[in-house]
Amino acid sequence: MRNTVSENIAEHSHNTAMIAHAIAVIGVRHFGQTYNPNEIITLAVYHDAGEVITGDLPTPVKYANPALRSAYKELEDNAADALLAMLPNDLLPDFESIIKPKDGRPVQIVKAADKISAYIKCIEEIKSGNTEFSKAQKTIKGQIDAIDLPEVKYFIKHFLGAYELSLDELN
C-alpha cells in the first residue's frame, strides 16, 4: 500500500522487538511466565531476516490461498537456509535457533508483537491522513483481539491506546 510514513525492515524489526520484549516482561512479572525476555527480543530482532533475500510480500498476497501460503512458507524456509549457509560453521549454532526458531510461546509472542507493530503502522498512516490503511487496521485488530495470551491482552489494554494519541496528548 502507499505509505505516507516510510518504514524499512530495520525500523519494523526494532519496533517489533521492543513490543515483544515488553510483552515478555509483562508475562514474567504479571503472569508467572518463565521465558527469557532477552531471548524473545533477539528472536524479534531477527524475525524478518529472511526478507533480505525474499523481499517483503504483502500479507494479503502471502495468505490469499493455501497454495500461496505453502509456497511462501517454503520460500521463507529456503531464505533462512540461505542466510545460515553464509555463516562460518562455528557461528551456526548461535544463529540457527534464532533464524529458524521452533514453535512455542516465545515465537507466539514475537508473532503477536509483529501484528501489533503492523497495527501501529496502520494507526500512524491513518493519523497522517492515509485512509488506505483503514481496512487493514480493522483486519489486524481482529487478529490481535483473537490472540489468547494474557500478557498480550495486558499490553493491548495498558499500552496500545497511547499510539493513537498525539504528542501533545501524551504530555
Structure characterization notes:
- With 171 residues, the chain is mostly helical.
- Helices cover 68% and strands 0% of the residues.
- It is built from ten helices and no strands.
- Helix 7 (105-127) runs antiparallel to helix 8.
- The longest helix is centred in the first third of the chain and has 23 residues, at 9-31.
- The model has no long low-confidence stretch (mean pLDDT 92).
Strand content: under 5%
Q: How does the helix and strand content classify structurally?
A: mainly alpha
Estimate the global geometry from the Cα principal axes: globular
What string, H for helix and E for strand, traces the elements in order?
HHHHHHHHHH
Residue ranges: pLDDT <50 for 5 or more in a row?
A: none
Straight-line distance between termini: 32 Å
Largest sheet: none
Would you report the number of β strands? 0
What is the helix content? 55-70%
User: Helical segment tally?
Assistant: 10
Radius of gyration: 17 Å
Q: Mean of residue pLDDT?
A: 92
Helix-strand layout with pairing:
Layout: H1 9-31, H2 37-45, H3 51-54, H4 59-62, H5 66-85, H6 92-99, H7 105-127, H8 134-145, H9 150-159, H10 167-170
Helix pairs in contact: 1-2, 1-7, 1-9, 2-7, 5-6, 7-8
